[in-house]
Design brief:
- The chain is mostly helical.
- It has one domain: Rhomboid-like fold, CATH 1.20.1540.10.
- Helices cover 71% and strands 0% of the residues.
- Helix 9 runs antiparallel to helix 10 (202-225).
- The longest helix is centred in the last third of the chain and has 24 residues, at 202-225.
- It is globular and about 50 Å long.
- GO terms for molecular function: serine-type endopeptidase activity.
- One of its GO terms (cellular component) is membrane.
- Pfam families: Rhomboid.
- Belongs to the peptidase S54 family.
């Protein structure tokens, strides 16, 4: 019988959390497609899309579940491709646990900002993906002497700008969700440490964390005040 070294496996460079997120969103997309269709608004709401009246009624988990739902095949295809390449790279930089936090915190902020400033039913991993893009850009500023991070940041700045321009030029795009995700990801990069690199100064980390929480509270307050 051959033994499997689990410790070695979980310390490998395999982007396990990226694969996990991909698996969750693909399974949910298949289930939705078989249960009314992923573009059906009622199906989206039943499966956990960001829907303000439901959030107001106490379903706060809708700030997280939309990250894993997608509206149509093109939507999930593009986001899955982006998640695979971008997620693998960021998970290698941060490690699986910290990458998990960055991804969720970006998506959470994006969905809360969307709740605060829009009324549309929304879903998609784009909030978290914009968070990853913005976190990568922030790393280039936090560690300007690290050539790898600085070059990565410069490339991602262009991608963020192009994606924002595309979003504002198109209909049916939750641009506030994208903006919120980017803000959440950038702030998270300041208070979630990259292993093997010098940590950000404690004062800066605390300020970034406070800013993150303050924006969440403000957007939730605005969202509730509109109903």
């Amino acid at each position: 019988m051959k033994k499997i070294n689990l410790r070695h496996y979980f310390r490998s460079n395999q982007p396990l959390v990226t694969y996990l997120f991909l698996g969750i969103q693909i399974v949910l997309f298949v289930l939705m497609s078989l249960d009314g269709g992923s573009t059906n608004i009622y199906t989206l709401i039943r499966y956990g899309a960001n829907f303000s009246p439901a959030v107001i009624s106490g379903q706060w988990w809708r700030f997280i579940t939309p990250i894993f739902l997608h509206i149509g095949f093109t939507h999930i295809l593009m986001n899955s491709i982006t998640l695979y390449y971008l997620g693998s790279q960021m998970e290698w930089i941060y490690g699986s646990g910290r990458f998990f936090l960055i991804y969720i915190l970006g998506g959470l902020m994006g969905n809360v900002v969307s709740f605060g400033l829009t009324d549309a039913v929304s879903a998609g991993a784009s909030t978290s993906l914009f968070g990853l893009f913005a976190a990568a850009v922030a790393l280039g500023r936090i560690y300007p002497h690290n050539h790898t991070l600085r070059n990565m940041a410069q490339g991602f700045i262009v991608l963020i700008i192009l994606n924002f321009l595309t979003g504002f030029a198109s209909s049916g795009i939750d641009n506030w969700g994208h903006i919120g995700g980017a803000v959440g990801g950038a702030l998270s990069a300041y208070f979630i440490k990259v292993p093997a690199l010098f940590p950000v100064q404690t004062g800066t980390r605390v300020k970034a964390a406070i800013a993150y929480v303050a924006i969440l509270v403000l957007m939730i307050g605005i969202g509730y005040s509109r109903f």
